[in-house]
Amino acid sequence: MSSQRDVAGQTASLRAAPDVRLGLRENWKQFSLLMLTNAFVGGMVGIERTVVPLMGSEVFHIASTTLITSFIVSFGVVKAFANLVSGQLADSWGRKRVLVAGWLVGLPVPFMLMAAPDWGWVIAANVLLGLSQGFTWSMAVIMKIDLVGPKGRGLAVGLNEFAGYFAVGATAFLTGVLASHHGLRPVPLYVGVAYAVIGTALSILLVRDTGGHVHAEGRAASPVEASLSFREVFARTTFRDRNLFAASQAGLVNNLNDGMSWGIFPLFFTSLGLGIERIGILKAIYPVVWGGLQVVTGPLSDRWGRKGLIVAGMWVQAAGLALTAWGGRYVWWFAGSVLLGIGTAMVYPSLIAAVSDASQPAWRARSLSVYRFWRDLGYALGALLAGFIADRFGFESAILAVAVATFMSGATVAVVMREAPPAGCALGSAGGRGLDGHRVP
Questions:
Q1: Is 4 a domain residue?
Q2: d(CA 425, CA 106)
Q3: Cβ-proximal residues to 307 (8 Å cutoff; 6+ apart), any chain
Q4: 441 DSSP 8-state letter
């Protein structure tokens, strides 16, 4: 029944837009609008990167690193589950409705952070932020992939993630500067109010749904592939298809180290005597490099393939983390942040494009939602793991433990993943190979 409703909804979308064409050039206006919208989505996370961990230690005087990083746990768990249902909701409700719902949920977040009388309010605000991000960012990337079709997935993802993560870094820097001159709140959080209002208005007034593009791309899909249930998509993405498994575990570990850096780095640098403004620079350079380079690495993954960029990117991230832990000087911490950004830029668009390669248009949104579920669960696991290790063995040990996990994840991709056919030849259309070597139907 669910599949029938999905197909009916896609058919209705196509009737509403009979001249649907795929491609970046053909859809550049909507694509650009979605990039701008995703910049505001990323900015909503950026307001927390520098300010919120320091609020825990300096405003609420929390001594436990594990407790301070609990706001990332609430964010990561809720965002992971929001990602999980977002694909199903996108197929049944429509992409635009889910996007707008995500923005409406996120509107109270900056106000809650400004007014928070205790740490519980910060955790509650991050529950809403996780739900909002799960819906808004998922729809932004899915809708761009819908618009461009199979030949430009890497480029589409690279541009989407560039907009989002460049905004994360720029906002982390901006809020760091504002906090150094005006305190940790409320002034830095006014930026979040502006992002939430503008992002909501753009999504309601100007963004159009992309269901017709999905139907146009999926006309040639086989009935068997189109009728996959959510349970089947979850199993295939999690472990049955070797490429999807490799991507899911790499995504989880990638965000595990991002969750660790989000919560641990400001506290680590503060313990070494750095001021808020210099911490803001270190916290900004990582997502700025990550965001900016994805304009290059996304298209490169279309030409060179996904696997090599993913493996090398995970290993570059591991090197950046090790340099940060062992550097001992600002110049080495800066270099470590740059390496972390370069490695993540190599990995992020390549992983999403690899998942898109291995899935059919009829169930691609659900497969991406499952991948994003495992990926963003890494935020919570990274915060918990790093907080636990830091409380017992120190910040350096926490950073190095995550560096080892990141290196091992890259090695797993090197062994398990098989390079997909070139641009537009989705592995899922012909069936992939499971971890046991048997063909997945």
A1: no
A2: 37
A3: 354, 413, 414, 417, 418, 419
A4: -
**Identity at 22, one-letter amino acid code:** L
- Whole-model pTM: value is 0.81
* Distance of alpha carbon 337 from alpha carbon 343, whole angstroms: 10
Name residue 35's amino acid: M
Q: Is residue 173 included in any domain, yes or no?
A: yes
Q: Are 237 and 367 contacting, i.e. CB atoms less than 8 angstroms apart?
A: yes
Q: What is the pLDDT of residue 310?
A: 97
pLDDT grade for 127, boundaries at 50, 70 and 90 = very high
> For the chain, what is the domain count?
1
Provide the 10 A C-beta neighbour count for residue 126.
26
Placement of tokens 């208005």 in the chain: 201
| 441 contacts: CB under 8 Å, gap ≥ 6 | 224, 431
What SS3 state is found at 433?
A: strand
Measured in degrees and rounded to the nearest 5, phi and psi for residue 303 equal -95, -40
Report the alpha-carbon distance of residue 387 to residue 392 in Å, rounded: 9
Structure tokens of 240? 């049955």
Over residues 23-79, the pLDDT tens digits come to 888 889 999 999 999 999 999 999 988 889 999 989 999 988 888 889 899 999 999
CB atoms near residue 415 (< 10 Å): 9
Looking up tokens 């906002």, which residue turns up? 171
Residue 314 lies in a domain: yes
Rounded to whole angstroms, the Cα distance separating 318 from 376 reads 19
**How does DSSP assign 183-235, residue by residue?**
-SSSGGGHHHHHHHHHHHHHHHHT----HHHHHHHHTTS-HHHHT--HHHHHH
CA-to-CA distance for 182 and 185, rounded, in angstroms? 8
Identify the residue with better confidence: 20 or 428.
20
Average pLDDT of every residue of the chain? 87
Position 39 in a domain: yes
Q: How much is the pLDDT for 421?
A: 59
CATH number at residue 191: 1.20.1250.20
Q: Whole domain around residue 154: which residue ranges?
A: 15-430
Which tokens belong to 320?
């950046």
Report how far residue 100's alpha carbon sits from residue 215's, in angstroms, rounded to the nearest whole number.
22
Quick: pLDDT tens for 197-242: 999 999 999 999 988 887 777 664 555 555 678 899 999 999 999 9
Report d(CA 165, CA 286) in Å as an integer: 9
CB-based contact 99:133 (threshold 8 Å): no
